[in-house]
Amino acid sequence: MSEINDGATDLINLDEAKKIASKLVGKPVTSSNISYLIQYGLIRQYGNNGNMSLSKSEIENYYSSYLITKEEKWKSSLGDDLNWALSFDKLAESERTKHVHRLHPYKGKFIPQLVEYFLDDHIDNFKKNVFFQKGDIIYDPFCGSGTTLVQANELGMHAIGVDISAFNSMMSNVKVDHHELTVLQEITRSITKKLNQYVADHGVTSFDNELTKEISDFNKLFFPVPQYRFEVRQGVINEKSYGQDKVEQFLAIFDNLVEKHGISITQNSRKTNFIDTWFNKPVRDELDYVFDLIRAIDDKQLKKVLAIILSRTMRSCRATTHEDLATLVDPVFQPYYCRKHRKLCKPLFTISNWWDRYSIDTFKRLSTFDKLRTDTLQHCFTGDSRNIDIFSMMRGLNSAFSENLEKQKISGIFSSPPYVGLIDYHEQHAYAYDMLGFRRRDEEEIGPLSKGQTIEAQDHYVKDIAQVLINSRPFLKEDFNILLVANDKYDLYPRIAGLASMQIVNRFKRPVLSRSEKNKTPYSETIFHIKSG
Description:
Layout: E1 11-12, H1 14-25, H2 31-39, E2 45-46, E3 53-55, H3 56-66, H4 70-78, H5 93-96, H6 112-119, E4 137-140, H7 147-154, E5 158-163, H8 166-176, H9 181-201, H10 204-222, H11 227-233, H12 239-261, H13 274-278, H14 281-295, H15 300-316, E6 336-338, E7 343-345, H16 352-372, E8 378-382, H17 390-397, H18 399-408, E9 410-415, H19 430-436, H20 455-472, E10 476-486, H21 493-499, E11 502-511, E12 524-532
Parallel strand pairs: 4-5, 4-9, 5-8, 9-10
Antiparallel strand pairs: 1-3, 2-3, 6-7, 10-12, 11-12
Helix pairs in contact: 1-3, 6-7, 9-14, 9-16, 10-12, 14-15, 15-16, 15-19, 17-18, 20-21
């Protein structure tokens, strides 16, 4: 490794760097922002932490090329009709994932602020009319993770959702249902205590602690921050061969620890389902242990909350690399070179930390939403929105509200239909289906990834989405408003609206800035405003 203080001659201090960056970006750039760039080798630090120096040209080059032209680049690629305000790029992530919206990961969900924008009673240069009022009933026929239901509650509106996935329905209802939070906290603490004892009794705690320390010491020696990352970016180090060589060197240490602590890493199974394939034995054993504790609880509502916590924990504890968390490639059961963090990382060998973290986080998020909720009704039914009878389903759930529903009817729809050939919605939560035993209805999904984006697949998609709108019509008011969020690259929605005897009266086009970690290309969505034809 080369020394950290060689090279640049145009050195400035941290305060000067922040001023230059802030002027270029047009908003404050903090010390943390600069530190992030250093940690990931995007710019270089000269001198030590007590007397940090930075290269003026590196600061100017980074912020000029990566930040200040984002809006212009996107409009150049996607068109000047983008409503940049609907990117919500000024919002912190904590706002985009506020309270119950981050109870569980979900691919393809929209951010709550987008729902608020169209449901609330404001108008602006783009949204010139108010579509909904407090007390209205909103319908989401593709409920997903329940974003529309949650925001309708915040805004004092009732909301009904439908989803083909039983897991999605449970997730949505856990977010909006009332819960005995004090009891939930007591139960999660009890499970955490029992789990920690179970992990310790099986030798996993001592194994994991020693392995963590060995990896940390190894990384400090062979992957020092920020020198290593910077030299990889500069081409001084061949990352692939260097990383592979160091993994092989470390595996001898790993094997010795496995033998020393008597840990079995792989499951003795024929790998017949997701859990058999994507979890190592210590993690699988702990998941089964916690699930048995959950099943012994009498309160059905709290069992559902605990099932969501367990499912979220499962997702974080799959035996995969950090780089492949979004899209699984191959199971990993030993330390590996991590291209995301540019050091050695390891799969998890215990669920205890994540279970504890998510238990606490879930309690906080439910408690926060409980203070915001209005006295309105929201519920997601498991069913097929192409043929479901909402009136009949509501009679079985809440007879008093069903009378109001049939008299008042639904004011409109706010939803994000599945995109043609993009996501298999059941498969993204395969681990939860295996553990919780829900029936999978993959064959009833609309536009799944497995059917591709062929002309035939597009035609089926058009008919299916149109059928959802046709089936919704008897439950809607005469002067309804439908707002559907879609990236319509095949121009299918005019056909869909026509087939449903409806018409598109307006389009709102927005940039989508927060996509997967592997795809940063400019991408937009259109919110189609649809009314009766």
